[in-house]
Amino acid sequence: MNHSPPLGLAALEQAVRRDLEMLNLPAKDWVPRRPGVRDVVVVGAGMNGIAAAGALKLKGIRNIEVLEAAAAGQEGPWVTYARMETLRSPKNLTGPCFGIPSLTYRAWHEASFGLDAWNALYKIPNQDWQDYLGWLQRMLRLPIRHGVTMKSIQPADGLLRVVTDSGEPILARRVVLATGRGAVGGMFWPGFVPEEMRPHLAAHTNDMIDFAALRGKSLAVIGAGPSALDNAAVAMINGAASADVYVRRKVLPQINKGRGTGSAYHHGWGELPDEDRWQVMTYIQDLQAPPPHETVHRVMRLGVNIHLDMPTASVRREGDKVVMRFADGSERVHDFLIVGTGFLVDMDRVPELSAFAPHIARWADRYVPPPELVRHDLAAFPYLGAGFELLPRDLGAPPELKQIHLLNYGAHTSFGGIASDIPAVAIAGERVALAILRGLFREDFAKLREELEAFDEPELESTPFFVPRS
């Protein structure tokens, strides 16, 4: 049997440089500079931030800055609160590769581990995906500042003032918020679980949890989504005595309809009439997605107990114990509770956007569905423009509102999974970059026209037909 040794990252990186050179990328830096002003600030250096910043740079919009709160190698959820063993998507995801084969995940994997390793791979391990994204940051030479947290965005006479945790103000013409799933309202904490139980007796699946402290203890988990099951699995791996998952449904969802929305949906969803977008979104949401079969096998292998048709009615604390009361009146006692109830969408709970929040259009402001399709959670999502930009709900909205682009979970109702799931990340980055390019070009057209008129490179100077200027 012939084995293919790894190509090596050095050779791949040379191929990347050659590909970019052959494609004349990045494009010429064409945006007229404004002293003290960034053309774009991208908040978040995870996969969406890379997709946006990379697409902008390749299009010649280079006066950009990427702010990332986490340390290098910790961006996004992949090695923090995403507790699955591998990504949930197929391995043949291209990643934010900008249409360049040498920048795909597969190219990186084969160069790092060899073709045989690629052929044997089932799904991408989280750490490998994180390492690949870090490699993309380096190959694209993205101007990232780690350890910087955005605190607020404020209107500033046609610009946006981004204020960081150090108090530093950064003026920008556009801001892209590539800030993940919890960035438009935070984690959803159910009202029947007392908030004061957190963090000593309860946590959300997206909290940083000390699983070692659960060794020998009894764990309860609410919800049967992938994150809920993955947290139960990690607890058992770390020595929990037991893990019981309580599910309100009698039967788990069976088909992930979201996987039936391919590239045509990713490209075309934003151009559909509101009625069609709403109908598809409610259809997918009502059916819900099952946990991946790998996750189910994992928790079964580890001895996690899944209890269907056991909706939680209330939770209370008794001493150092968690008492779960269910809809049928029965109760069970555990040492710790993990809540897997997803994320809240509420633009009024996004502190960074408090200066704009009252004026941000929601779906409830723009579309009234028929009574049978009313979904208040979907109606709370912001109603975004074609380039993921916020739109005004009233005449008093600051004009700068449209200069903020939501490349995060806030785009879900407007664009489907394009801005929150891996398969469409490159398409999302391209869409937002093109929208920003068109906006900057329009705003700077007078200056660009002057540059055009000043362009003076005589083509025929070396020929007999050259006419010198008088």
| Rg value | 25 Å
Biggest pleated sheet: 7 strands, mixed
Strand content: 15-25%
Judging by the overall fold, what is the CATH architecture of the largest domain? 3-Layer(bba) Sandwich
User: What is the succession of H and E elements?
Assistant: HEHEHHHEEEEEEHEHHHEEEEEHHEHHH
What's the shape?
Answer: globular
Distance between the termini: 75 Å
Number of strands: 15
Number of separate helices: 14
CATH superfamily of the largest domain: FAD/NAD(P)-binding domain
Structural class: alpha/beta
| Structural domains: how many | 2
What does this 3D model show about the protein?
This protein has 470 residues and is α/β, with parallel strands linked by helices. It folds into two domains: 9-185 and 345-448, FAD/NAD(P)-binding domain (3-Layer(bba) Sandwich), CATH 3.50.50; 195-254 and 290-339, FAD/NAD(P)-binding domain (3-Layer(bba) Sandwich). Helices cover 29% and strands 16% of the residues. It is built from 14 helices and 15 strands. It has helices spanning 9-22, 47-58, 105-113, 115-120, 126-140, 226-237, 263-268, 274-287, 293-301, 363-366, 376-379, 412-415, 425-443, 445-454; strands at residues 37-43, 64-68, 144-146, 150-156, 159-164, 169-177, 202-204, 218-222, 242-246, 305-307, 312-318, 321-326, 331-334, 336-339, 404-406. The strands form three sheets. Strands 1, 2, 3, 4, 5, 6 and 15 form a seven-stranded mixed sheet that branches. A hairpin with a 2-residue loop joins β4 (150-156) and β5. α6 (226-237) runs parallel beside α9 (293-301). The relative contact order is 0.14. The mean pLDDT is 95. It holds the Pfam family Pyr_redox_3. Keywords: Oxidoreductase. This is NAD(P)/FAD-dependent oxidoreductase. One of its GO terms (molecular function) is monooxygenase activity.
